[in-house]
Structures are given as structure tokens and as C-alpha cells.
Amino acid sequence: MTTARDLAIVALDVSRRRPLEQGDLSLALAGAEVLDLIEARVLILDGDSLVPGPETPTGDRLLDEAASLLVRRRPYESVEDWLWRRGRGLASAYTADLERLGLAARPRGRRIPLRTGRTVPVESPARRRAEERRASGEPVFDALAAAAGIQERPDEAFADLADETATAVLAAVGEAVMELEAQRQRRAIENAAFDNIWRGQ
């Protein structure tokens, strides 16, 4: 299992109780993929650039897909550009993949045998591992979960991180999430102003 998949499982569990912003989750998943690919030695971070290494299968379908999308010529892609490009719709892709693997499902209705409602994680070793990882207080996972809106970010979120690469990736994720929130707020203000015009205010 990868950090991105663990994060997706935890997000599905949390979204049963309260909705998550899918854009924030997608950006956090794209950042988790960067960290997973670095750990798998498929890429390295050189300054702000994602420099791909050998195309080595990771054993994870979505992570292999991510690796195949890396820019392999100079100038290499920045972490920020990767987050926006790869993050588009990524939360939905992970949900669909968890369903495909039998790690998540839509519950059947009581009266109608069709599948209804939100996708939820099923009881499995993968779910237990993801829950244990969240409960462990692992700084990288905590920071990604906070960026996705799964939990509050502790004040010392980066205090225990000695890894400069992880810190740089997590900082880029945090900035992208803040930028997305700013875009949402601008749209809300514009929509409110447009509504006021129609009401004659």
C-alpha cells in the first residue's frame, strides 16, 4: 500500500461523517504520490523540480500511471505544476480504484437492491493499516491529512520532519490548497455580487 492509497481510504471513512472538499483531497493525493515515487526511487526532487529516474514498476496501478506522466525532458516540471496537473479529478480516480480492488463499495439500499449513497471503505487489512497510520501521528501523513481537510493541522506539523524533501513537497501542497480556497472564495464573492445585481440591490 502507498501513502496516497492510505490517505484515500482514510478520506472515504471521514467523508461518511462530513463532506470533504474534493479539490483539496486531490491536491493532497498528488503530493502523496510525489512522496511515494521518491521513496520508490522513481524520481528525485532537485530544488523545485521533479527529476524522473528509471521507469521502474511500483506494483501500484495509479502510482505507475503517475510515474508514466512525469515530464522526462528539461525543463522538468515543478512540484506546484505537478500538483495542479495530476491533481485534477484524482480523488475520484482513487475512489474508483479502491472499488475496483474491493477495498471500498457503495452500500446497497434497504428496500431497493441497487447500490446507493457514498462509497465507503470495507473492512480489510488495508483499511486497518490506513487507520493505524493515521492514529500513529506520523508527521508526513498528518500534514497530508490536514491539507485534505481530514483533520486539523497541529502547530508542530513540520517540527518532527528532518527530511527537507518531504518538507518541500508538503509546503507546496499546503500552498496549493490555500490557493484553491482563495479561488473558491473569489467565486463565492463574484456569484453573490451577480445575484445582488439580479435582485436589483
Question: Notable features of this structure?
Answer:
single chain; 201 residues; mainly alpha; two-stranded antiparallel sheet; 4 strands
Summarize the structure.
57% of the residues lie in helices and 6% in strands. By secondary structure, it is mostly helical.
Give the topology.
Elements: H1 3-15, H2 22-39, E1 43-46, E2 49-52, H3 61-68, H4 79-87, H5 90-100, E3 104-105, E4 120-121, H6 125-135, H7 139-147, H8 164-199
Helix pairs in contact: 1-2, 1-5, 1-6, 2-4, 2-8, 4-8, 7-8
Question: How would you describe this protein?
Answer:
The protein has helices at 3-15, 22-39, 61-68, 79-87, 90-100, 125-135, 139-147, 164-199, and strands at 43-46, 49-52, 104-105, 120-121. It has one domain (3-199). The mean pLDDT is 88. Helix 4 (79-87) packs across helix 8 (164-199). The strands form two sheets. It has a two-stranded antiparallel ribbon with strand order 1-2. Strands 3-4 form a two-stranded antiparallel sheet. A hairpin with a 2-residue loop joins strand 1 (43-46) and strand 2 (49-52). Helices cover 57% and strands 6% of the residues. With 201 residues, the chain is mainly α. The longest helix has 36 residues, at 164-199. It contains eight helices and four strands, in the order ααββαααββααα.
